[in-house]
Design brief:
Order of helices and strands: EHEHEHEHHHHHEHEEHHHHH
Structural class: mainly alpha
CATH architecture of the largest domain: 3-Layer(aba) Sandwich
Strand order of the largest sheet: 2-3-4
CATH superfamily of the largest domain: HUPs
Distance between the termini: 44 Å
Helix content: 40-55%
CATH topology of the largest domain: Rossmann fold
Radius of gyration: 21 Å
Number of strands: 7
Bound molecules: tryptophan
CATH class of the largest domain: Alpha Beta
């Protein structure tokens, strides 16, 4: 049995509804963990990356067929509202614009900061369910796990030969992750995963990578590896690899129930798959402040404003208007509004997720089909790499 991907999925209200101050740059990639601003030391300044992204958006509008997107996630648990408004809806948007998309489930990458990943197969299944539920269409988007694609992983070896140990150790995102790691020793995988990520991106010659700011150092390394590979092994001026661009998009910063950034690992998130009652409980537990009057002021009142923003995103309304409607009715009224808005907005997504969860055979088949496509593409690329490196025997 297959479930059609055509049942209605709510579209994201235009971000124009909120004041610019409420948005920060964040595309796909690692929206889950602490964003530290640790990337400010990279050579791509944010403003350059932003400018480039705006240009790219224009080019996508003109000719979506000329691009290939690769993006993805570590399978570490159920996706939440922060992921939805931060990255998932943007992926669906690109897919629906007609951009060919590869969606990677980075299962090896889960092992960067822990010794054992519990039930990776279930985490991967959860991720595929979330993807399907939000409207990722496997007929148009290739969903695959990088551990299932041998030729992709083999690219890691020549790629590692193209980067220095000091380049790897300078990566600000890796440094930050090491600082927050739950391991006593840093594994070789942690140190080298950005080169692995370059293989994730370059195996399919993606030219666009929708990511968050924390992933920019990895994108820069990917570009460096592509350039060095082409310089060292390219023949007749034909590059083997494109130098992919990061695609940053404006995304709302949603706080979790404890008032810090919404994140799986902090237990402060509202999962997409949560039931209506679970959602009500989570919203009720959310931190607010001592003022009865509800206003939208992200600087001065971050917790209350994040709740207002969440309701506004779900309702497709301006957050100032949402706040004004609640006015002096206080935090309880705000939370009731948020709960209702979230539950209504997510109802079709949850309904689809539940239906797919009834048919895990189909879900696994989606992944197997995606793995097969990714393997074909990776074999072709590895063939080109072998030819360029003169390792065809
Ligand atoms: N590093 C990303 C994260 O932590 C996941 C990821 C792995 C990824 N490979 C990728 C993202 C390639 C974009 C492109 O979420």
């Amino acid at each position: 049995m297959s479930i059609s991907a055509t049942s209605p999925v709510p579209t994201l209200p235009a971000p124009a509804g909120a004041s610019p101050g409420t948005y920060r740059e964040q595309g796909g990639g690692k929206s889950d963990e602490t964003s530290t601003g640790a990337t400010t030391g990279t050579t791509i300044g944010m403003s350059a990356a932003q400018r480039r992204s705006a240009e790219l958006e224009e080019l996508i509008r003109q000719d979506p067929g000329r691009f290939r997107v690769l993006t993805g996630d570590r399978p570490t648990g159920r996706l939440h509202l922060g992921h939805y408004f931060g990255t998932l809806h943007n992926r669906v948007r690109l897919q629906d614009l007609g951009v060919e998309t590869f969606l990677i489930i980075a299962d090896y990458q889960v092992l960067t900061d822990r010794d054992v990943a519990d039930r990776l197969d279930e985490r991967v299944e959860d991720l595929v369910l979330d993807y399907l539920a939000v409207g990722i269409d496997p007929a148009r988007t290739t969903i695959f796990a990088h551990s299932a694609v041998s030729a992709l992983n083999q690219l890691l070896l020549p790629f590692l030969s193209l980067v220095s140990v000091s380049e790897l150790s300078r990566n600000p995102t890796v440094k930050d992750e090491i600082a927050h790691s739950r391991q006593s020793a840093v594994s070789g995988l942690m140190f080298t995963y950005p080169a692995h990520q370059a293989a994730d991106i370059l195996f399919c010659k993606a030219d666009l990578v929708p990511v968050g700011q924390d992933q920019l150092p990895h994108l820069e390394l990917t570009r460096t590896i592509a350039r060095r590979f082409n310089d060292r092994y390219g023949t007749g001026g034909t590059p083997v690899f494109p130098e992919p661009d990061a695609l940053l998009s404006a995304a709302p910063l949603l706080l979790g129930t404890d008032g810090t950034k919404m994140s799986k690992s902090r237990g402060n998130a509202i999962p997409l798959a949560a039931g209506a009652d679970e959602t009500a409980l989570l919203v009720r537990s959310a931190k607010t402040d001592a003022h009865r009057h509800i206003a939208y002021d992200p600087e001065a009142r971050p917790e209350v404003s994040s709740l207002v923003l969440l309701a506004a995103l779900c309702l497709g309304r301006d957050p100032h208007e949402v706040a004004a409607d609640i006015g002096d009715k206080g935090a309880a009224a705000l939370k009731a509004t948020v709960t209702e808005a979230v539950n209504e907005y997510l109802a079709p997504i949850r309904e689809r997720r539940a239906r797919y969860a009834q048919d895990l055979g189909y879900v696994r088949q989606v992944l197997r089909d995606g793995n097969e496509i990714a393997n074909e593409v990776a074999e072709t690329t590895l063939g080109e790499v072998r030819a360029a490196m003169k390792t065809l025997y």
